[in-house]
Design brief:
single chain, 85 residues, alpha+beta, five-stranded antiparallel sheet, 1 helix, 21% helix, Cystatin domain-containing protein, thiol protease inhibitor, Prot_inh_stefin
Length: 85
């Protein structure tokens, strides 16, 4: 457990983003089709917190916070916050 760390974007981040895509749009009241990952930070807690900086198809930037529970909980990742930058 610890503080936030910038990490290299990998396939697991794209998988988390796919799970929460609809939740991001719900938080923003939008209908974005695609998100490009610009930066990822993570923090290991009782699960993993992610902070994504994303770019939409119309070049808007978004900060999204996601919580991914530990695997044994069988709970999906979910958006905890999303704002336009």
């Amino acid at each position: 457990m610890g503080g936030w760390a910038v990490v290299e974007v990998d396939q697991s981040h794209h998988q988390v983003l796919a799970v929460v895509h609809h939740g991001i749009n719900q938080h923003l009241g939008s209908h974005h089709q695609t998100f490009k990952i610009i930066e990822v930070r993570h923090q290991v807690v009782a699960g993993t917190n992610y902070q994504f900086i994303l770019e939409t198809e119309d070049h808007k930037r978004i900060q999204v916070k996601v919580f991914e529970p530990l695997p044994h909980t069988n709970q999906p990742a979910h958006v905890t916050a999303a704002v336009y930058l």
